[in-house]
Amino acid sequence: MADVQTQNALIEAHALARHVRMSPQKARLVMDLIRGQKAQDALQTLKYTPKRAAKHIEKVLRSAIANAERKADDAGAPLDVDQLFVAQCFVNEGPRWKRLRPAPMGRAFRYQKRTAHLWVGVAEHHVAAAERVAANVAEAEAQKGVRGTARRVRKALTGKQAPPKKGKK
């Protein structure tokens, strides 16, 4: 029973890319496009989005999907990648690079090169997780043994409970 309980939880995974040389504001525009979509649909959206951030976010999303597959393999649970969706995604501001630009009369102007931290989390859809748990329970029932199988067949044929065993009192 412990096996079934450990596999009852949804499979979730995330990936993070830090210090991406891009403005967080521009990256958020692309992140908003994929939030809540199925993983495969999100990959297609990113593939045809003409923004520079799309390539970086696609790489992080592929990494999150691979992490989910790895997590499922480690848990011994089958995972249908088509049932994954983008559960969470956000962009945080990274450190700013301070730079100087020459200005007239020997002066200098400061400017900042912004960086971003990209975070994408994927999760298994709850319906797919329920189907996976039901399949695991059915497999566990099938592995119980011959006596259990005979009892289940007898119960299915008669439509009643099997009579209790007579034994020593």
Structure in words:
This protein has 169 residues and is an alpha+beta fold. It has a domain at 10-101 and 110-125: Alpha-Beta Complex (Ribosomal Protein L22, Chain A), CATH 3.90.470. It has helices at residues 2-6, 24-34, 39-47, 52-75, 126-142, 146-158, and strands spanning 12-20, 84-93, 97-102, 108-113, 116-124. A three-stranded antiparallel beta sheet has the order 1-5-2. Strands 3-4 form a two-stranded antiparallel ribbon. A hairpin with a 5-residue loop joins strand 3 (97-102) and strand 4. It is rod-shaped and about 105 Å long. The protein starts with a helix and ends in an 11-residue tail after the last helix. The model is unreliable at 1-7 (pLDDT under 50).
